[in-house]
Amino acid sequence: MTRRRPVYTRGGDQGQTSLATGTRVSKDNALVCAYGSVDELNAYVGLLHDGLQANDAARWQTLTAALRRIQHELFRLGTEIAALPRLQAHLRSLTAADTQRLETEIDTLSAALPVLRNFILPRGQLLVSQAHVCRTVCRRAERELCALLRGEHQPRPELISYLNRLSDWFFTLARHLLHALEIAEELWTLR
Fold it and tell me: What is the pTM of this model?
């Protein structure tokens, strides 16, 4: 009988972690923060996916399929950021075509939406709020990826474009969900 290794290693108990290269760095290292935010985003995407499934799986089938695809893409993106060459060789890298596909999906989701002339409050229904959380975590991941451009780790421009468009995708999804659920957008107003 083989003995299972525990999930914990105690290696990070002093505030450091190992990069894929074996180099020990602080857990607040810019690279660790960037792929950590991508991982956090992936978890929120899973939460949104599960919320849609629980709400009405048949109604949201196209969206849940897109969210599952996005989760795989985020794992690929995180793998590339973390510089895991042994895995990168087996994974298809994200390309401009992936960003273009997001744009096409945004156009499809936007087709029935009213023109947006004002800021809207990120709320209206739990699924909508979850889409907005995905959007804001995606923006943070994008900012952290951009911060890497100033250091030794140089992410490919396609990764930044993908995250930029993905946050737009989540914003559009939130609006699409409000529209589909027949809930009015609440505009932000100066008071």
Answer: 0.91
